[in-house]
């Protein structure tokens, strides 16, 4: 709990911003789902892209090893979204990662739209995966917000220059990153177990 205390304090002190990050991630994803339901060909096109670029084959090859599958999911979530799309851009341009995360959420919403019986059934257990992993993204977005605010308004973190504000913002990013990483781990493990052990029997039944 000691490791979580700084994060909880930051969330309480900036509750409005934290709730906005949640609204962006979950809300935009729901909009994407609605668009996917209204235009099923968009979801089908996304599936075709995954088949064409080898993503589907990669997933199928990992289904025999739950821990390797979980490690791959973690690497993809952190290495292709959290870091390069949300956090790293925000180190250069304040708040840029938040906008990019919203764009990603929209695309994920379209991909997850339950346009057929298979996707609808899969979405039942997968909803928990969405809840956990999206919350991890929310925390990374929140960290990007704190960094941008400290950078542009250094007085908000008790700094007298933007350089010092930036450095203190990085410290806040570090604290927020700890629970975010924990959620990414939990989400990856659950998603791997879900897709290997929970979803197949549901589809057969």
Explain this structure to me?
The protein is mainly α. It has one domain. It has eight helices and no strands. The longest helix is centred in the last third of the chain and has 43 residues. The chain is elongated and about 60 Å long. The N and C termini lie far apart (42 Å).
Features of this protein?
8 helices; 86% helix; mainly alpha; 205 residues; elongated; 0% strand; single chain
Distance between the termini: 42 Å
- Helix share, percent: over 70%
Q: What is the molecular shape?
A: elongated
pLDDT under 50 segments (min length 5)? none
Measured by DSSP, the beta-strand proportion falls in under 5%
Instruction: Please tally the β strands and state the result.
Output: 0
Rg, Å, rounded:
18 Å
**Count of structural domains:** 1
**Discrete helix count:** 8
**Average pLDDT, all residues:** 95
Biggest sheet character: none
Q: How do the SSEs run, as a string of H and E? A: HHHHHHHH
Structural class: mainly alpha
